[in-house]
Amino acid sequence: MEGKHLHVRCMAHILNLIVQDGLKEIGPSIKKVRQMVKYVRSSSSRARNFLKCVETQKIECDKMLSLDVPTRWNSTYLMLDTVEKFEKAFERFDLYDASDDLDLSKMASGMKEKFKRYWRTPEKMNKMIFIASVLDPRNKFVYVSFALEELLGEETGNVVNTKVEAYLRDLFAIYVSKYGKGSKSQPSSSDSSDSSGSGISQNMSKNSLRTKLHMKKQKNDSGSLGVKSELDKYLLEDQEPESEDFDILSWWKVNSPRFPVLSQLARDVLAIPMSSVASECAFSTGGRILDPFRSSLTPKCVQCLICVQDWLRQETKPICVEESLESKGQDNEEIILLARDT
User: Coiled coil where (predicted)?
Assistant: First the structure.
């Protein structure tokens, strides 16, 4: 009959698929039990401590803990059935075993020390990270202050928050001196004394003029009142509502007429990438290019090789070296070929 009767579905396999589909509902619980059994069985000392717990709880069972095969439902059932009988032993197991793994503990201690070396104290953290969050109109200092308090505690968080604000104001003052209008003292002719002899007292006019010029110089050195208050104005305004399609760069572009100096600061700060290639990578690349077989390359040639290699990797479309040679001439042939080989 052309082999129509040869194909019979495996009932055991179908049953396994059905049960496995049902076990997905309690998958996290089964995973925890499996890890618990694996932890006890992976060490002879833990197994002995577990047997002490079994004896203490006076549990009588001929079976011992067995690890299941996740793809076979019947082995999972046997594992759960056995574990259930030793439930009280697992509750007491914590008294005999503190779950300390000396190897992992040593490894974690080294990693923690490395973490503390760079991030242990807030002083080691670049304040530009917090300033970038302040320049997000959805956050400002309201969010940063709360986050610092949650991260470092109320007392330390307030101290760091004060330092971040002072750092931001110092940074803003530099931008005011660079981009602000009237950053240099330029006395106008209207500030000069009236030579018409209108009857104003000479001593009074000189003292008043001197005071006004001094006050104006201070204002101009620190920026005009309007420019200086840009940061305060920005911080006092309400936060922007949260939105998935919020574009922070577009927001600063639209609001740059209101914050001409602060928008320059935001543009520079927000342009800083959150991560970059480690500096060691550049040295490693240089070492691969300037190896013992290429020790006679000039510094300019090495620099060109590194740049060309970076450009080749960043191109979205594949670069045809032959076409590049024809269009650019043969002068750069050595550099391009070396970069491709590197």
Answer: none
